[in-house]
Amino acid sequence: MKENKLKEIIEFAVExxxxxxxxxxxxxxxxxxxxxxxxxxxxxFGNGHIWYYLCGHxxxxxxxxxDSWAKAGNCRRCMxxxxxxxxxxxxxxxxxxxxxxISEDVIEYYYDYIKNNENV
Length: 120
Hints:
Layout: H1 2-15, H2 27-35, H3 38-45, E1 49-53, E2 60-62, E3 86-91, H4 92-102, H5 106-116
Antiparallel strand pairs: 1-2, 1-3
Helix pairs in contact: 1-3, 1-5, 3-4, 4-5
């Protein structure tokens, strides 16, 4: 089952431009050398930005070059005025890679992401 998920994750990354050679060895070695690598994460998660409101709520993800975050105002959770929008930006790949690293199952994290973003 995990091998099938890994295959789908790899295919997704290749479709988005990842072209590094596949490491040989066990699944554990693949996870350590590939799923945790910056180039692989960039291919899967992209170079868009994730913006955080000043209050820390409502993570919003936008494509590269999208400035619609500037139109955001009050947090939908706490209704705190965030002075016209978000303040802290991270590249999507960095945010998601960090989340994958601390997740219970990195393969499941990647797999859930690609299933929710197949048509993006």
